[in-house]
Amino acid sequence: MASFAMRAVVPVRSARSRVARRSRADAGPKRFGTAFAFARDRPGAGPAPARTAVVPKAAEAPDGPSTDSAAAEAVAAAFVDAHVTSGTRVGVLRSGSCVSAVMAEIHDRVADGRLRDVVAVPADALAAKEAAVAGVPVSPFLVNDDGALVPSAVDVLAMQPDELVVNADGGVDAVFGRAQRPTQPDLIAARLMLDAARVVALLATRSDGKPIQDHTALFEKVDDADPETETETETNDADDDARVGFSPLGGAVPLAMRFADKAAFEEDAEELDDLFLGDAEVWRRGAELDANPRGGKNPYVSPDGRHTIVDLKFNDPLAKPPSRWRDGFVLLGERASAAKIAAELATLDGVLAHGLVLGASVAYVGETSADGAVAARQIGG
What we know:
By secondary structure, the protein is α+β, with helices and mostly antiparallel strands. It is built from eight helices and 21 strands. The protein has helices spanning 18-25, 65-83, 97-111, 125-134, 187-196, 232-242, 262-275, 338-345; strands at residues 52-60, 89-92, 119-122, 142-145, 148-151, 154-159, 163-166, 172-175, 197-204, 206-207, 210-211, 251-258, 281-284, 307-316, 323-324, 330-331, 334-335, 351-354, 356-360, 362-368, 373-380. 44% of the residues are buried.
């Protein structure tokens, strides 16, 4: 992930109250997607990284697409070695180089007799296509139970997130569902599968669109100083040393929001916008990738007509061009964990599902060094 230099830390002010935020929201007319700027205070860095285990799977590959392919194959082999045995039901979300490699690895092992009776359980049409192309048998995720569709069993879920980090406590959080092509994600089915899976495994060769060259850059880091007693100068130095190479989880979080009609949706969107006033902007997805915050001329509505998708963008509106906050996710003007953001979203009836993964069971990361060497590394589990 991209590195950055932390700015000097200033004394953290008290958090704004919800009442204060509401009074600002009520001060005048507002539409979701508009930007509000507040000064940001930067908290200190977090604890030291947890240990990782190197999976014995490595290869040499040149720069370019073949390098990413080699990394994905290493990740797939490590994942299948650890989690797939005969009879395993493997949940699959969306597509991607790692998902394709997992399906191909399973097919090869079934074909040569190392595995049998392994089935893919896709959460969406893209995942089903990945399995079909690889020749892996497919079993439906939602099954009819006396007239109601209910989730079926998933032994392990293989998913390729858009971005992931390892928290100070060793837990792995991620964001998924940012890609809008070739189809919009089914966030509701994805959340059902995340809840149903016995094991959630994140598979990645990239994070936030950038190749992973050093897996340790995914780890949240902290200094050893006591935040209650350290001086401001000590805090600044420690922050710069501890945060080199690490970027906290942030940027856009996709949300599935109910859509009964336009007026009802806009009320829900305004409530969401008020909740994250000054911290994030609400942008509805449209048919065009560059649609305006209201979804452009053709805002997206799900095929069943019951929900739409918005992006909750944790961006600094004063940056030119607007870019994500240095602190990643923010709430009440201060750095916030993915868990805190998810908890806030859970208070809104209009939000049906979100693209946050909290505390994944394990992650397999394809690391590609500057000289082209590829290795898969296991984090957690």
